[in-house]
Amino acid sequence: MTxxxxxxxxxxxxxxxxxxxxxxxxxxxxxxxxxxYGVGSLIAVDHExxxxxxxxxxxxxxxxxxxxxxHERRLARLxxxxxxxxxxxxxxxxxxxxxxxxxxxxxxxxECNDLQRHRDFxxxxxxxxxxxxxxxxxxxxxxxxxxxxxLGEFPYWQWVHRSKDRGASPTAQCGGQLKLxxxxxxxxxxxxxxxxxxxxxxxxxxxxxxxxxxxKDLGLKCRGARPWLGASAPAQECGLPLRTLQRGSSAVWxxxxxSALSIPPWSDGRADPLAEHWDALREYDERDHVEIYLKGVxxxxxxxxxxxxxxxxxxxxxxxxxxxxxxxxxxxxxxxRNKEYERLRAGNDESEHTRDExxxxxxxxxxxxxxxxxGVTGPMLVKKLREVRALKAFTRLVDAExxxxxxxxxxxxxxxxxxxxxxxxxxxxxxxxxxxxxxAWEKAPAVAARIERMRTAHQRVLEQRxxxxxxxIASPATPRMVLLHTLAHVLIxxxxxxxxxxxxxxxxxxxxxxxxxxxxxxxxxxxxxGSLGGLVAQGEPEILAxxxxxxxxxxxWCSSDPLCMETEASGAGGINLAACHACVMLPETSCEHNNxxxxxxxxxxxxxxxxxxxxxxxxxx
Length: 621
Description:
Layout: E1 20-21, H1 32-35, E2 42-45, E3 48-52, H2 55-61, E4 69-70, H3 73-79, E5 83-85, E6 99-102, E7 106-108, E8 115-117, E9 138-139, E10 142-145, E11 151-153, H4 156-160, E12 178-182, E13 192-196, E14 204-205, E15 243-246, E16 254-261, H5 278-281, H6 287-298, H7 306-318, H8 329-346, E17 360-362, E18 376-395, E19 418-433, H9 435-442, H10 445-465, H11 479-498, E20 506-513, E21 516-523, H12 541-555, H13 563-566, H14 601-604, H15 616-620
Parallel strand pairs: 5-19
Antiparallel strand pairs: 1-6, 2-3, 3-6, 4-5, 7-8, 7-9, 10-11, 10-15, 12-13, 13-14, 16-18, 17-18, 18-19, 19-21, 20-21
């Protein structure tokens, strides 16, 4: 068959694919555009593969009708932006959708076994087929990435043309055609064979390509490729070691998500009429000076009352970490969580409610003394809440929460004053653990020993995943953190049966520190499952006491016992103890910590040492 003539295609100077909307057959929900398919991630659509473009193009392509603005002042201040935008829905009714580029560009034809860039197959417009064989092309299964967040094509040519000492061949071009085939003997990398028609190098398998130093041994380093930004973004100087990944691996893209609850006085969800003036207003401490400034700017017609401006300034200063002249992002984020904890404890009575209020948290009317024997205190009924989750950046190879200075990759080439985000509206229940009883329990040697095993295993995993162990943060495992985490999981499982919500529609928000010991369980989905109702009723003391007893008794046994309870370590890296998918693990969307640092023995004790369990008195009664 005579191959068709080459078609001229417009591409960037660096060979980057042009951007276009995601194909209709690859619909992405709005929430997925934040958590799963955000900027810089890879999307597989049928037999094709794409990478989501940066926000520079989204700013032009997302319309205000399908991507409305979201306002959450506390989170916007933390992330240094003015507002957030809801991503467009990629469905049949959407005019916008996500902007994507084809990536990886290396494809192979299963018929002729050619391995080359997509455009070199001369595919017809709008199709991904071999121009000669007319069969669907297969995107490269392998990509390379570095810890700085750069992403590139796997260097097949260098992998084939390597010398016996594993170094790259000095020959720049051989004039041959790369071929890829599978032997069919096994499904391992050994059966994936790459060759070149030049005859200068033998056929080699992909075995060994995933070794940590496999590409370093070839003399290859990261060149700073950023294919999600297209040809207009020059490659950055990097030089970090490259790692081979499968394009569907979770290590290829990990979102850096930050969230905040809308709490008074920032909980009306409206646009801030003073957004451009807060930097100047923060310079004034005296009420008279603030009044003079507002009169000068708004000519006596300020859209916000002076009392409200002063209240907002005071609330903002309260969220600044104490004793921190130049607080880090982590300090400011912890201060934001601390303020949420204080507001959830205090609530807001009915006299504070307005029609626009997005936070309604009230004390239950029942007798709270029913919870005292359980070690639970301070339940609050969060009848109305709003959470905003924003995509701040993304990482590759490393988890942003695991290092002190993780290399986060921004979502755009130039600084923008907005970020993509989603909002969740629903209800929840907040509860705390009795501090006196918790303090005595934490001091037990058996409890400390179990936590130390988990902390050591977690720290070892963090160090193994990092190129520089000196940058690794300390594991957050503490007795109260693991106890609260496991308690939240068993309550979510219990309420998924009692309140009518599927477990994946509920989410935990933990408040664990020396001065905090609370958990908020709330609706975690932005679809119809977030408005079922009934969860907040579970916070009434009589019902909550019954639920805690039932959840703890249910956690006493597991269908995998005695293996589950008596295991020395479980989960990836041995970070969990008595925890498995048959007892306390939840869907990933419901857990803040990816189902790690769990141990139901801290709830119910062990057969050899029942007193390890915080709620052991429930089992005795």
